[in-house]
Design brief:
The protein is built from 6 helices and 3 strands, in the order H-H-E-H-E-E-H-H-H. It is mostly helical. Strands 1-2-3 form a 3-stranded parallel sheet, with helices on both faces. It has a single domain, classed as Rossmann fold (3-Layer(aba) Sandwich), CATH 3.40.50.2000. The N and C termini lie far apart (55 Å). Helix 3 crosses helix 5. The longest helix has 22 residues.
Amino acid sequence: MGDGPDKVRSSHFVRAHGLNVGFAGFRQRADLPRLYAAGDVFVFPSLGDTYGLVVDEAMAAGLPIISTTAVGEIRERVVDGVNGYLVPSNDPGELAEAMRRLASDPALRSRMGARSAEMIAPYTPDRWAAEFESAVEAILSSHRRGSPS
C-alpha cells in the first residue's frame, strides 16, 4: 500500500483482525523484486484501475493474487479460485475473508502462486512488442486499403 490517507485506518484494521500485513509505502522499481519475494500474497484492493501492471509483476514473482473486480480486464489474469480471488470493490468483508483464507492455508498459497507464475510466463516484453508491431501493421494495412491510390 502506498502512503495515502487510508494507511492509518488500514493499519488499525489489520492489527484488529490479527492479519500479518506489511505496508511498504511507495517504492522505487529497483526495490520491487525484493518486496515481492518477501510476500506471501499480493492484495490489490483497487477502487478502479484500467490495468494494474503490479498484478503482472506479483504473478511473475509467484504470488497468489487477491484483487477487486474494479480493475479493467482483471478476469483475464486472475481466475477466481485458481491463482487467487476476485472480490467486489465495495465489499471489505469479502476482501478480508479472501485474505484470511490465504493467510491460513500455506498449501493453497503455494498452489495459487505457482499457477500465477505459469499463467503470466508467456507474457514477455518481446511478446508484447511483437503484438504491438502486429497491431500497428494491421492498422497501417487497413488504412492503405481504404485510401485512394
